[in-house]
Amino acid sequence: MAYLDELELFPRLRKASASWNQYVAHPFVDGIRDGSLPENAFRHYLAQDYLFLIQFARAYALAAYKADTLGDIRDAAAGMSAIVDTEMSLHVEYCAGWGLREAEMEALPEASATMAYTRYVLEKGNQGDLLDLYVALAPCVIGYGEIGARLSSDPGTTRDGNAYTPWIEMYAGEDYQPAARAHAETLDRLWQSRAGGARLDELCRTFDEATRLEVDFWQMGLDAA
Question: What's 84's DSSP letter?
Fold first, then answer.
């Protein structure tokens, strides 16, 4: 994902975050890389991720409400559609291979880590503007793209016999990478139109707080092992 370094805002956010490396190199991620992650941990994460995606669809609906231009509304609508019409279907299909049925996942209570991050994102969006919301979403949307690309290109990643290889390929593939790229480019556009240097510290703080909540989401899965 070298293209990220060509942008203005995201590299600043990532560099300023004390939590970023803890997120992208979390033991949960390392367990995916070498196939050592306990299956119960991954199964618990998948079920919570289903509930997570529902709240993120709401976040994109909020983005449409917060938008000032028709272009921003269309971007938000496309993000919500990508989750509701595409990603949820793929996720449900993938989860079925792990013995998880949609009705069962929908009936589950949200874990504390799921509620903490998703409600944080929605609260940031409600309190702030569209840029605040997209910054809070960025650790997930862009971070999964970075993790997928990193694991896919890592010669130390176990592929043969690794139950998590399809997950790696999903986030490293051409279905997901453009979504991560588009989010990073939207961040830059909003940064240029809505912000200046005076907001950078505030945005970095939001990004790091959201990243710490992503770390907790990995840990939630690992603790279920």
Answer: I
31 residue type, one letter: G
pTM of the model: 0.92
Q: Which residue in 131, 123, 7 sits closest to 72, CA to CA?
A: 131
User: What does the alpha-carbon distance between residue 205 and residue 123 come to, in Å, rounded to a whole number?
Assistant: 15
Kindly report, residue by residue over 38-93, the tens digit of the pLDDT.
Answer: 999 999 999 999 999 999 999 999 999 999 999 999 989 988 988 898 888 889 99
CA dihedral 195, 201, 203, 209 (to 10 degrees): 180
Q: Which of 181, 184, 160, 161 is nearest to 171 (CA)?
A: 181
Can you state the angle between helices 70-81 and 39-66, rounded to 10 degrees? Answer: 160
Indicate if the alpha-carbon torsion angle 87, 108, 127, 8 is positive or negative. Answer: negative
What amino acid positions are annotated as catalytic residues? 140, 214
What is the rounded CA–CA span in Å between residue 30 and residue 11?
23
What is d(CA 8, CA 191) in angstroms, rounded to the nearest whole number? 9
The encoded tokens of residue 50 equal 């289903």
Identify the structural domains of the chain with CATH numbers, from first to last.
Answer: 2-223 (1.20.910.10)
- In degrees, rounded to 5, the angle at the alpha carbon of residue 6 between the alpha carbons of residues 157 and 195 is 120
